[in-house]
Specification:
- The protein has 264 residues and is of the alpha/beta class.
- Helices cover 26% and strands 26% of the residues.
- The protein has helices spanning 3-10, 25-36, 50-57, 71-81, 119-124, 142-149, 168-173, 201-210; strands at residues 40-44, 63-67, 87-90, 93-94, 99-106, 131-140, 158-162, 182-190, 213-223, 230-239.
- A 7-stranded mixed β-sheet has the order 3-2-1-7-8-10-9. A 3-stranded mixed β-sheet has the order 4-6-5.
- The chain is globular, with a radius of gyration of 24 Å.
- The N and C termini lie far apart (83 Å).
Length: 264
């Protein structure tokens, strides 16, 4: 046993190797991207570009395509991505079908959503959740926008990140042609709903697993301080390769040989 681990145990602590025993989200993504060969990240619900910046800090050098519908927030995203030649931006939301819809812009823009905050979230986040105003934004589908997003890439290997505050399944529904090309994904699951009429996290997981994904990592985002119950967590998933089909050789066509009966 190494000295630093033995010393830690004297004080009731245990040291874990973050890449092997308990990887952080960024180190797990780094490992997963390397294994899958990811060269294009679709950052849906980019906010001010925090996710893209985290990926760059972790060493990811491939393309990032960020989608953010709120105008003021998009301006901050644009400033953050300035000078990065392979970070592309779209000032729109993604959904199940193209159109326009009003989005509620909250005091803390990370909670901006097409859905209304529920009583739990208003009580839990009294300073961040109040809606300041609503603005009409453009909605496109991922299937429609993908050719623009991956232009210039040959056979892109896609990773889909979803963080749309209750709208993730709508984005997924508008990506029927794209999803089979996605090698891995990350979504924020709400164990405790924070918006009215948002999909249950079990429904979300069922949709993703049915599409061929399995979980590779779960990372708590927030908890209830009083009960320690999870509120939100980041779920990382990867596509499971289809098992190879065994080819059974066919017998050559023709008549079966007729054996002659022996005479008594």
């Amino acid at each position: 046993m190494k000295l630093h681990k033995e010393s830690a145990r004297l004080f009731g602590w245990e040291l874990l190797h973050i890449r092997k025993d308990q990887p952080t989200l960024d180190s797990h993504l780094k490992q997963l991207f390397a294994r899958l060969g990811v060269d294009c990240v679709l950052d849906v619900g980019a906010n001010q570009g925090q996710y893209g910046a985290m990926l760059r800090k972790a060493g990811y050098k491939g393309r990032i395509v960020s989608f953010e519908p709120v105008k003021a927030t998009f301006a901050q995203l644009k400033a953050r991505a300035a000078g990065d030649p392979d970070w592309r931006l779209f000032n729109c939301a993604l959904g199940a079908k193209a159109g326009e819809q009003e989005i509620h812009v909250t005091r803390s823009t990370v909670f901006a959503s097409f859905l209304d905050p529920n009583e739990f979230s208003r009580r839990k986040y009294p300073d961040a959740m109040p809606v300041q105003h609503s603005e009409k934004v453009r909605i496109r589908t991922l299937d429609e926008v993908l050719p623009e997003a991956v232009a210039g890439l040959k056979a892109p290997k896609l990773f889909l990140k979803l963080d749309t505050q209750g709208f993730d399944l709508q984005v997924f529904a508008g990506a029927k042609a794209t999803v089979p090309k996605v090698l891995g994904m990350q979504t924020e699951l709400s164990i405790q709903a924070i918006y009215e009429d948002m999909p249950d996290y079990l429904e979300a997981l069922g949709t993703y697993t049915k599409a061929g994904f399995v979980m590779s990592g779960l990372y708590p985002v927030s908890r209830d301080r009083d009960t320690l119950a999870l509120i939100e967590l980041d779920c990382v998933m990867r596509r499971v390769p289809a098992p190879e089909k065994k080819v059974i050789a066919k017998k050559p066509a023709g008549r079966n040989p007729v054996r002659k009966k022996k005479r008594a």
